[in-house]
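go over this chain:
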Amino acid sequence: MAKKTSSVALVAVIILIGALAGCQKSHIQVLQEQVKKNPNDVKAHTDLAYQLTEMKRYEEAIEHYDIAISLRPGDFMATNNKAHVYYEMGKYDKALEIFMSLIKDDPKNSLLYSNVAMCFHNMKKYNDAYIGYMKALELNPKNGKAADGFKILEQDMKTEGLPFPPAPPK
């Protein structure tokens, strides 16, 4: 009899857990409600856009980053993240344009140079990628993103039969 009672209790717990899970809101729903309640909150739009990016809902993410940027022009996080979304979409030219604009305001940011180099690398503009990685490492020799990208660039250029390091620009 005890065995039957424990099985019934287990089934009841499983049903209860399922019911509770169905009642809970998803993280994205909570963030969407935050934006509805606070349409002028930059952080709410940025948080929602970040989650949308994680879900690969890139166009929606860009819309919310644009709203955040319109509410707080020059917001670094929203602008930088928007560039990363374009990068994830394979729109390297748009990402590059944004990263370059951020460098104008923060010319000593090694990570921005890494991002620029990654865009150039994916666009197969290897000389420009090389310069970007070198600048990133000059600013911060411990920049792992640049160091890793630099190694991959070297491999890619050698695979394509291109000299590494590339000839300096004229």
Q: What stands out?
A: The chain has a mean pLDDT of 88. The domain at 26-89 is CATH 1.25.40.10 (Serine Threonine Protein Phosphatase 5, Tetratricopeptide repeat). The longest helix spans residues 2-23.
